[in-house]
């Protein structure tokens, strides 16, 4: 399996993996394995990649995982991100905070350390840039994602509500 920055040919696979893992499309009995709260178009993923980057895990030419990194200013128009930023009490800075996510891993690849590998690839992409930490938001019912992020060193820094659902903000400084 290869973990690297996305190339143009990867984005259709990113959208496909995303769409299979959206909260609205995952059976409620299967949400314990994780889900995505927000949908992005292929053009939005490409814009995120242009802003900072999208990293992917590819196995036999199939995208089995992805992680986006974007600047706060580039994502301010996203209503969910806007709610997170509005609720922040100064922990995040547009000058040094990269927004991580969405992150998604195919169900058959979960529990194998792939999320850590995706974040390691993101950190390599961010070295030498202005970014010093990564902030993510996670739906409070997405226990799998919270545990996976805490396992690789993210810490809860805040909570906020958007459209009646509660989210947690987690952050991690990187070297």
Automatic annotation (TrEMBL):
Its EC number is 2.3.1.-. GO terms for molecular function: acyltransferase activity. Residues 1-175 form the N-acetyltransferase domain. Signal peptide: none annotated. The keyword RNA-binding does not apply. It comes from the Bacteria. Keywords: Acyltransferase, Transferase. InterPro entries: Acyl_CoA_acyltransferase, GNAT_dom. This is GNAT family N-acetyltransferase. It comes from Methylococcus capsulatus. The lineage of its organism: Bacteria, Pseudomonadati, Pseudomonadota, Gammaproteobacteria, Methylococcales.
